[in-house]
Amino acid sequence: MRAFEFVIAIIAIVLTYRVFMTIFRDRAQRDDPQADQQLDAERRVADLEERIRVLERIITDKDKRSDLRREFSDLE
Length: 76
Description:
It contains 3 helices and no strands. The chain is mainly α.
């Protein structure tokens, strides 16, 4: 019976450790100001990539030169 109690104690310790680590990791990620900065940077990069795609389309579409002013005004 002692071995069974020992195994149960080890399982309880491991589960408690995992619960506390999950709680602390979530709290650290929530309070991390760099995470907010990273999300902001990712959004700005996505916006810039979209603008580059539009500019590439404007440059490569030689038949639609009349829409050039409209495309640039849409970027603003």
